[in-house]
Give the backbone structure.
Amino acid sequence: MKASQLFSPKEWQLALPLAFFLHLFYVAPLAILLASSFQQAPGVAGVSLAQYGNFFGDAVNRDVLVDTFILGVQVTLACLIFGYPVAYIYARAVGIWKTILTFLILLPLLTSAVVRTFGWVVILGKQGLVNSALLGLGVLQEPVKLLFTHHGVAIAMTQIQLPLMILPIVASISQIDSRLLAASASLGGGAWRTFWKVVFPLTLPGVISGCLLVFALTVSSFVTPSIIGGGQIMYMPTLIYQQAVVLLNGPFAAAISAILLVMVLTVVIGLSVLSQRSRAYIR
Amino acid sequence: MSTYIQIVGRGQYLSRRAVLGAGLFAGTSLLLKACAGSSTSQSSPVGKQLVITTFAGSWEQFYRSELIPAFTANDQGTVSVIPMVSLEQVAKLKASPQSPPFDVVLLDEGPFDAAPKDLFQPVSSSLLSNYEQVLPALKSKQGWGPTTGVQAVGIAYNPKTVSSPPTSWNDLLDPHYRGRVSMQGMKTTQGTSVMVQFARMNGGGEANIESAFTLLREQLKPNLAGIAANSGALATLFQQGEIDLAPHDLNNVISLKEKGLDIDWVVPQEGGIALRPAQQIVANAANPELAAAFLNAALSQEVQTAMAAAPYYFLPANQTVKLSGILAEKLGSTTEEALTKLILLDWSLINPNRTKWIERFDKEVQA
């Protein structure tokens, strides 16, 4: 008892080392970034909204913002549609199958994004796997252009982000009390009814955190969009890189970063509100 | 009853946590202290160590397998290599000019010309015993480091699909190759060079690129399969049969060809473009003499001979080195002869407008 008084049980103190670290290396740089986005030009003093005006004043930039958002939504939905059944199967799997599935789900995380992206270049090309297969089966007469298109980027990103959707859903499915399913069945609920009325609502927190992860990482990813999209399709991270590193226009790059941050935060807050409602529903 | 157990349980849980937390915190602060201590003791052996940059790919390979072993063989010091593109190197130097992160950098002429010159220090030719052997056209009039090796940009093509080899830059515009052409964007030295070359062929030049943008909009863009992010991406596109034609470096094309790819390279009749990356000593470098010794090693006949051979194929700056093999077949027996087939662009005219052009190019090519 004495010992516990000595190290008074204030849990927040446990987070101090991390808080210190984050303030030094994350919060402070972020504050500097936000401050510099209000500069009129590099090195000019005073507060101005000129950079934001420049961004929204140009149709190309607005398109980049919209495209990035659409990409995020598409990839998130695709990951959800492909990932949920896999997570469901995984949660029901037993024995060796569980090990095999774990390996398969985590496989994409074991190679670097650069390597996987070059793999996708090979698959999506005009003479790549997808086109050869579709042409061979007679589905297509002409190869479709996937490389250097928005769709190509969305396809590759979906594969790359899929584990981040599956893992949180797996966590919430495996928390479901199996007696609930038995109860539903004994009350006459069929498989589909049980799924939609019991299982799916109970896994909503997992679904939402998966969506959060996938959306935030998709709209901020750099390597895959720049290689699969080529220079002809730009997203916010490529625009930031171009302004910050190539054109050395720090304040404008900072403004674009701030706009991207606001977009991600809006989605995060929106989904968090949903998540709280879904938790309330579960209780 | 159950509440009571919970309280006791919680109390124990917390005390264990508290001890653990305190321990972690102490550990972290010790670690921080240790880090702070070691950084001061590190400054003494810096004298014998060089931190240098190079470009990823062939250049890095050349540095690691030829240049650095040749330099360290004389027991002059140790070298650590950081691969990085020119613009990023300049950005890093600008961020901390007083204590620069590198001693020697390798920069394309464009970014070097555009960079503030107080980031670098001129190299005294008395420290470079091999300076005499450098081809005069590749020396800097202002006393900066001379060109290390020349890269020739011409047209790469797929001999399987392109029956008669291209002869002119205009072949990239031929409607026959609709959707079968690629190039790098203007943020790369190669992309900017090609656009300036198109301007030169159509009444413009280094200072006036308008005609090249007209060409891009009307003839080049319909032919483009896509803009390649870098030369690695360009290689993949050729490998996948995705494109037939693209402006590319001779050295990259040869190494792809030797790996069995269907690819070949020609100097267009209007002239290829010479890219002249050069090593520079960074201002406030810890040991300028050692840095100069490194530049000297790079210019030595031995290292330059290796640079002009497999698998690198850069045109040597040292005029005592003779060209052989594919390099000689494509460009002549010496670098001097090769330069007669290549165009040297004036980057001091390009740079004032380059950022505007990069932005404009990226907007114009948006799908």
